[in-house]
Amino acid sequence: MNREWIKVIIAAFFEVCWVVGLKHADNSLTWAGTVLSIVVSFYLLVKSGEKLPVGTAYAVFVGLGTAGTVLSDIAFFGEPFKPVKILLIVILLAGVIGLKLVEDEKKGEEA
Questions:
Q1: Cystine design at 57: which of 2, 52, 63, 98 (Cβ 3.0–4.6 Å)?
Q2: Which own/partner pairs from 86-93 qualify as long-range (CB within 8 Å, at least 24 positions apart)?
Q3: Does 111 reside within a domain?
Q4: What is the four-CA torsion angle of 78, 82, 88, 89, rounded to 10 degrees?
């Protein structure tokens, strides 16, 4: 995994932070953290998009962010655990991983 994909993963982590912050921020400090998370998240996504295929990078970003947000809600905020929800997240992540693998194969054929 190269440095650009690590940026996408870190950006997805900050996406989870700002999505959770949008729901739970209730004072100026938590709102500042939410805004900072938005800035860091999109900065890293844009910087990685300069070298990675934008569609694939965005799909990975959104897929990881969605999975992280749902899992955070279950782990930290009392959202009920539903096996169907977890199954759908696994399917989503399988699609994202598939996109990345197809992109890697395409690069190998071009070389």
A1: 52
A2: 92/63, 92/66, 92/67, 93/63, 93/64, 93/67
A3: no
A4: 30
Best CA proximity match to 23, nearest among 62, 79, 67, 61: 79
- Cα separation, 70 vs 79, in Å, equals 8
pLDDT > 80? residue 14: yes
Assessment of whether the complete model's pTM goes beyond 0.90:
no
Query: If DSSP states are collapsed to H, E and C, what string results for 17-32?
Result: HHHHHHHHCCCHHHHH
pLDDT of 1 reads: 58
Residue with the bigger pLDDT between 109 and 45: it is 45
Q: Give the three-class secondary structure for 53.
A: coil
**How many structural domains does the chain have?**
1
pLDDT digits (tens, 9 = 90+) for 24-62: 899 999 999 999 999 999 999 999 999 998 988 998 999
Q: What range does the domain containing 39 cover?
A: 3-106
Exposure of 110 in the CB half-sphere (CA atoms within 13 A): 6
